[in-house]
């Protein structure tokens, strides 16, 4: 959208030419008195985003700016703000930004020395009007101000153009409110005017809601602005709502012509730009460097450990040498000084240290290999020796060995079993393959039949479990099952437990809770069906297997769960007549009321003349096909009062 | 500020020659931005002279039209056609058996949203 250029002829207007401002809920228009069109029109909104690089908060008025330039601003935490609440201005800070922008675009540079004519809603609260006057006088220093109702101005213009007569009715529908103002001999009858809090905003919102309900997948891409654009471009007011409906219901050719197909703008997903050669090389080098560092660190650690272990070994060997040399009776004192209990312990420590040293140096661990090669009997020598031939310590050792032996055997058995199963499955597959090659047609048939059977079983099971609660959108989701609704398995089980409990306990005196087992009942009752039984799992596994097999060999096969998604749900006409039901009934009655009230001011002959001349002023925002029976209702009124 | 942003003149200049009081003087930066403006409801309430107004003179409150006396027309919630039927379970209005099937397929949340659209949803608090 183009930006608004600054007007350059501001100085040409004499100070007594008024500036005219139409301060509307959706659009702000400003221009010079005496000209037929406003100079500047923009949406009456303000956005205050932050500039991305400098971090300054800036003010952007209107939404007509080039979206390409908006990328320099961080708009995520700001949204469009309007100075209006309903049809009354309440946010004068925002109003000031809007006025600043409008006067700046109009070309004002040193002062605003023109009278201003500004529109406001009918019966504007006094505080709102006084604040507006205060803002204009004190901040802009304007010489004078006049307020007026836009609908009345419009009527007067239409009267001048000869579109309507002295007497008439204005129906002015704005963004959030609609007014009905009767005119009598050129003067508005304020006593008889009416407001209904419905406007173009509600129509757009309704359209947006409907679209996002119909296409939940695209709900995020249907914004209010988009819906507004759709409404303005494609919607229309039906002259006779009933017959228009019939048209679409019958699905005639005319309806087909009126149907609009509209596609959401498709944004291609951002293409992944692969890293360049250079970058790849850089990354590889970096990785290599890091790897080298890690390797170096590991090597250093290893050498430290090796030297540590060597030192330890040396110390132990020295200790052993010492023990060799000294007398028998000195041994205990040396041992206790070194922190060992017996010579045997030192030996085992030496063994341990040498083993870990070997491991650290990366030499093959001899003992491990030996252990693997050795038969079970050799590894556990004590197991087969009777208890009475062993010392208590050995008996302890024997127990340990027995335990180790059984677990090792178990592992081996499991391994064996796995291998066997693998073989069996291989064999089965081969057999199946043979069968298939023998008679492909029959085999496929069989497989399909089996698939069908299984999938039905699984599905039924599921249905029983959930009782189809999910399918029909009703109010009772769980627990609150009405009469005639079937209970699911868990609920049935709970009911059964409750009833049995009630009848059992009800007989004699109440002893519930005397025994601990009584309380188990609660556990049973609160158990969920989610605890799946084995058979079900098996069925599902089998189903998965068959379906994968079918997918491999049958090109036409589509798994059932996906298949159910393919044919679309029944399609409804893409055009959906907009009906706001209650709201618009309300709106119509406002019109009627205004007519009734203004009746007081008419004589009978005047009335019939008047009703003919009722003019409607649509500010365009309500141009959707929703003001259904405007005409019939008015006809009704005419019958009623004339 | 980028040259194209400056060229497009989309950003409102902070100081304007024709103003007597500049924005920065009126709303100094140090003060909290959240300057409270009275909403329309508060505005109307504070204007208690509405009560002192003679009842036969129009003001913002009394020109609002009362709710309609006429029964609302019944339209299908899904298609917008005239709806002779109501689904007793979901309370949605529908025009034809096909729509009924569709209604029964709808998730609970959508049913509620359709009802809200015509102000018929039961709000449980």
From TrEMBL, chain A:
Region (Disordered): 392-412, 457-486
Classification via SMART domains: ACTIN (SM00268)
Key words, A-Z: Coiled coil, Nucleus, Transcription, Transcription regulation
Gene Ontology annotations for the cellular component aspect, listed alphabetically: nucleus
Compositional bias of kind Low complexity: 466-480
Localization annotation: Nucleus
The keyword Transcription regulation appears for this protein: yes
Keyword Ribosomal protein among UniProt keywords: no
InterPro entries: Actin, ATPase_NBD
Residue stretches in coiled coil: 299-329
Taxonomic superkingdom: Eukaryota
Protein family according to the UniProt entry: Belongs to the actin family. ARP5 subfamily.
Stated name of the protein: Actin-related protein 5
The organism of origin for this protein: Asparagus officinalis
Automatic annotation (TrEMBL), chain B:
Gene Ontology annotations of biological process type: epigenetic regulation of gene expression; positive regulation of gene expression; regulation of ethylene-activated signaling pathway
Subcellular location: Nucleus
Pfam families named in the record: YL1_C
Cellular component annotations (GO), alphabetically ordered: cytoplasm; Ino80 complex
Domain Vps72/YL1 C-terminal: 74-103
Record flagged with keyword Manganese: no
UniProt signal peptide: none
Superkingdom in the source lineage: Eukaryota
Keyword Transcription: yes
Keywords noted in UniProt: Nucleus, Transcription, Transcription regulation
Protein name: Vps72/YL1 C-terminal domain-containing protein
Protein's organism: Asparagus officinalis
């Amino acid at each position: 959208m183009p930006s608004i250029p600054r007007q350059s002829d501001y100085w040409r207007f004499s100070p007594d030419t008024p500036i005219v401002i139409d301060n509307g809920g959706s659009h702000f228009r400003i221009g010079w008195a005496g000209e037929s069109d406003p100079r500047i029109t923009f949406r009456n909104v303000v956005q205050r985003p932050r500039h991305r690089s400098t971090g300054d908060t800036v003010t952007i008025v209107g939404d007509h700016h080039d979206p390409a330039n908006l990328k320099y601003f961080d708009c995520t935490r700001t949204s469009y703000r309007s100075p209006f609440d309903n049809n009354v201005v309440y946010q004068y800070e925002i109003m000031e930004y809007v006025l600043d922008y409008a006067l700046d675009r109009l070309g004002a540079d040193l002062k605003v020395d023109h009278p201003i004519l500004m529109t406001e809603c009918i019966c504007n609260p006094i505080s709102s009007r006084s604040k507006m006057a205060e803002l204009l006088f004190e901040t802009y220093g304007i010489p004078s101000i006049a307020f007026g109702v836009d609908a009345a101005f419009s009527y007067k213009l239409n009267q001048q153009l000869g579109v309507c007569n002295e007497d008439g009715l204005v129906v002015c529908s704005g963004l959030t409110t609609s007014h009905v103002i009767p005119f009598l001999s050129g003067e508005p009858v304020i006593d008889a005017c009416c407001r209904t809090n419905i406007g173009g905003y509600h129509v757009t919102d309704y359209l947006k809601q409907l679209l996002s309900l119909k296409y939940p997948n695209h709900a995020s891409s249907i914004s209010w602005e988009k819906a507004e654009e759709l409404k303005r471009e494609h919607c229309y007011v039906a002259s006779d709502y009933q017959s228009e409906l019939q048209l679409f219901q019958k699905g005639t050719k005319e309806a087909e012509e009126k149907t609009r197909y509209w596609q959401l703008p498709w944004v291609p997903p951002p293409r992944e730009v692969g890293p360049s050669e250079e970058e790849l090389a850089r990354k590889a080098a970096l990785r290599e460097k890091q790897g080298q560092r890690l390797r170096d660190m590991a090597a250093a650690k290893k050498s430290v450990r090796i030297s540590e272990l060597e030192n330890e070994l040396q110390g132990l060997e020295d200790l052993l040498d010492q023990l060799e040399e000294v007398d028998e009776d000195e041994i205990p004192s040396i041992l206790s000084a070194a922190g060992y209990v017996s010579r045997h312990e030192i030996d085992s420590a030496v063994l341990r240290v040498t083993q870990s040293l070997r491991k650290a140096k990366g030499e093959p661990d001899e003992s491990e290999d030996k252990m693997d090669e050795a038969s079970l009997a050799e590894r556990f020598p004590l197991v087969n020796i009777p208890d009475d031939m062993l010392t208590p310590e050995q008996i302890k050792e024997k127990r340990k060995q027995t335990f180790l032996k059984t677990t090792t055997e178990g592992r081996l058995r499991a391994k064996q079993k796995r291998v066997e199963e693998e073989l069996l499955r291989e064999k089965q597959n081969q057999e199946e393959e043979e069968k298939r090659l023998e008679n492909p047609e029959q085999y496929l048939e069989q497989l399909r039949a089996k698939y069908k059977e299984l999938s039905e079983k699984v599905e039924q099971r599921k249905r029983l479990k959930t009782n189809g609660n999910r399918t029909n959108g009703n109010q009772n989701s769980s627990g609150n099952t009405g009469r005639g609704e079937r209970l699911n398995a868990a609920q049935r089980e709970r009911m059964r437990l409750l009833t049995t409990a009630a009848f059992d306990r009800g007989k004699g005196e109440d002893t519930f809770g005397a025994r601990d087992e009584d309380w188990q009942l609660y556990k049973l009752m609160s158990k969920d069906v989610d605890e799946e039984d084995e058979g079900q799992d098996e069925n599902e596994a089998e189903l998965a297997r068959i379906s994968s097999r079918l997918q491999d060999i049958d090109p036409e096969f589509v798994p059932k769960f996906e298949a159910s998604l393919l044919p679309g749900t029944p399609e409804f006409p893409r055009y959906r007549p907009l009906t706001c039901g209650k709201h618009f009934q309300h709106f119509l009655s406002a019109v009627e009321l205004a007519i009734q009230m203004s009746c007081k001011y008419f004589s009978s002959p005047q009335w019939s003349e008047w009703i003919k001349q009722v003019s409607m002023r649509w500010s365009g925002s309500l141009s959707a096909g929703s003001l259904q029976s405007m005409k019939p209702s008015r006809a009704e009124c005419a019958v009623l009062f004339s | 500020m980028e040259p194209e942003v400056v060229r497009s003149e989309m950003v409102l200049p902070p100081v304007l020659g024709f103003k007597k009081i500049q924005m920065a003087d009126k709303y100094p930066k140090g003060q909290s931005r959240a300057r409270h403006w009275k909403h329309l409801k508060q505005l109307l309430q504070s204007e208690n002279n509405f009560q002192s107004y003679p009842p036969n003179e129009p003001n913002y409150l009394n020109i609002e039209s009362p709710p309609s006396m006429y029964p609302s027309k019944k339209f299908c919630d899904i298609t917008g056609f005239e709806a002779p039927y109501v689904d007793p379970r979901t309370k949605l209005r529908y025009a034809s058996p096909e729509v009924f099937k569709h209604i029964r397929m709808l998730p609970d949340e959508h049913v509620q949203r359709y009802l809200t659209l015509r102000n018929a949803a039961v709000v449980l608090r």
